[in-house]
């Protein structure tokens, strides 16, 4: 016991019988965070997350509100269920804990596994974190957290700034909305919003935390937005003419960028400043007509757009963070639907469905791609994907007959086999709760169901959202 106490004191920078080496607990987090590799804005965020998680106490332990039952350990509260590779000796050692946090957060660019970050609790510690980094005396530039685009489709979901999930569903008569009444908790009743009927939807966060929702059908394009962070919503406003599909993502400087497909190709418009107005529509240089669109973010922060129709699959990408766009490049043959996600190491993963099932392609390094590989799975299915709390990508597929899912067997690793996830439907989308657990929404002509992770490979049953069917999605 004494040796354990001594090791903890030394890890905290305290020599037994001497004065504390740090002016504040945050100084410990700043030093071990810097030694682990965090830099710039990423280091400040890392310290703020640690303050929110443990008050920068290397011996901190939490077992409250963990599903499944488990322990959060040390400075960055590394969970022993989701990260069994981090043993107790490492978790309660300040530097080893920081090293693990650096790896799990992809160098400070992805804090999704931390519920305090997802719930916005780190924001109240940012001034203290910045002061600790200033005292450390290192001001090298470094990446801040990346904001990854949410899945687009007829059902979309994202977290408000306070950590509560919001879900929007496009029915024949317009868009419907429900939200969690508490973080990781239950749901409101469905609210009818009007707007475009039978639309495709996309959702993205403004840099001030306000969510913005976009809805397009063949005739109109409209959007609405939160009037304050986690607050009420505006009415629908015109955003352009009709089209086939849309996707939205945030630039590195926080400006939202929207892509829309239609009968003459792909167009885009973007905020002229963060939280501000919009440019005019511009041609994206061609692209597949009437295509399904998804957007993802590369490890260095550049947005990349993927566009698929029945005949062709193409993609284009920013040539620099916040910058212009490449020409469209061939990405494969045509298909039915697609989903794009990222590994813990930042490499992108793309899945596309068609008459022969689901195929897969992934970045082998930041500048090159694998060949297409067959995974099996449901033919002509709607696709979605999300990352488990430990960083593994999980893919969901639904068609009129079946729902199935498959997942990586390890972080940055190959995938297992498709397994049953329920019966058929018309749409699926996956998102993450504030505590990192995946929540999946499945729609059909009967309404909207959801189910959620209760463990690594265990799930709740499908139930209605708030025990009511909600809008039909045909």
From TrEMBL:
It comes from the Bacteria. Keywords: Signal. Residues 151-467 form the PLL-like beta propeller domain. Residues 1-23 form the signal peptide. Residues 31-116 form the Transglycosylase SLT domain. Residues 367-388 are annotated as: Disordered. The keyword Metal-binding does not apply. Gene3D superfamilies: 1.10.530.10, Fucose-specific lectin (2.120.10.70). InterPro entries: Lysozyme-like_dom_sf, PLL-like_beta-prop, SLT_3. This is Uncharacterized protein. It comes from Streptomyces bingchenggensis (strain BCW-1).
């Amino acid at each position: 016991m004494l040796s354990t106490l001594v090791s903890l004191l030394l890890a905290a920078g305290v020599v037994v019988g001497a004065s504390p080496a740090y002016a504040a607990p945050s100084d410990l987090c700043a030093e071990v965070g810097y030694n682990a590799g965090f830099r710039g804005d990423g280091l400040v965020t890392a310290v703020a997350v640690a303050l929110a998680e443990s008050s920068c106490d290397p011996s901190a332990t939490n077992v409250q509100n963990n599903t499944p039952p488990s322990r959060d350990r040390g400075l960055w509260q590394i969970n022993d269920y989701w990260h069994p590779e981090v043993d107790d000796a490492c978790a309660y050692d300040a530097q080893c804990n920081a090293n693990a946090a650096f790896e799990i957060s992809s160098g400070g660019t992805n804090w999704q596994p931390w519920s305090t970050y997802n719930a916005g609790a780190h924001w109240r510690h940012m001034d203290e974190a910045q002061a600790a980094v200033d005292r450390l005396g290192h001001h090298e530039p470094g990446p801040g957290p990346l904001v990854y685009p949410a899945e687009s489709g007829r059902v979309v979901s994202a977290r408000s700034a306070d950590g509560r999930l919001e879900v929007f569903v496009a029915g024949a008569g317009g868009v419907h909305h429900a939200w969690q009444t508490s973080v990781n908790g239950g749901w409101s009743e469905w609210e009818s919003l009007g707007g475009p009927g039978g639309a495709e939807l996309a959702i993205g966060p403004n840099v001030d935390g306000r969510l913005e929702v976009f809805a397009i059908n063949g005739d109109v394009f409209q959007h609405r937005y939160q009037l304050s962070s986690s607050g009420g919503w505006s009415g629908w406003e015109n955003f352009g003419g009709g089209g086939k599909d849309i996707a939205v993502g945030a630039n590195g400087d926080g400006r939202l960028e929207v892509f829309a497909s239609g009968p003459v190709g792909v167009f885009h418009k973007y905020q002229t400043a963060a939280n501000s107005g919009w440019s005019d529509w511009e041609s994206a240089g061609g692209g597949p007509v009437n295509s399904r669109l998804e957007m993802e973010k590369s490890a260095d922060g550049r947005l990349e757009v993927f566009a698929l129709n029945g005949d062709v699959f193409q993609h284009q990408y920013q040539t620099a963070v916040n910058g212009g766009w490449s020409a469209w490049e061939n990405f494969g043959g045509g298909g039915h639907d697609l989903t794009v996600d990222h590994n813990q190491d930042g490499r992108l993963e793309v899945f596309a469905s068609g008459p022969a099932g689901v195929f897969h392609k992934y970045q082998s390094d930041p500048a090159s791609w694998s060949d297409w590989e067959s995974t099996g799975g449901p033919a002509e299915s709607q696709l979605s994907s999300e990352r488990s709390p430990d960083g593994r990508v999980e893919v969901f597929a639904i068609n009129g007959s079946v729902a199935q899912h498959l997942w990586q067997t390890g972080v940055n690793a190959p995938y297992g086999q498709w397994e049953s996830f329920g019966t058929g439907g018309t749409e699926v989308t996956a998102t993450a709760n504030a505590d990192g657990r995946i929540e999946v929404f499945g729609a059909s002509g009967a309404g909207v169901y959801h189910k959620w992770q209760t463990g690594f490979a265990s799930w709740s049953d499908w139930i209605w959202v708030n025990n009511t069917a909600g809008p039909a999605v045909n």
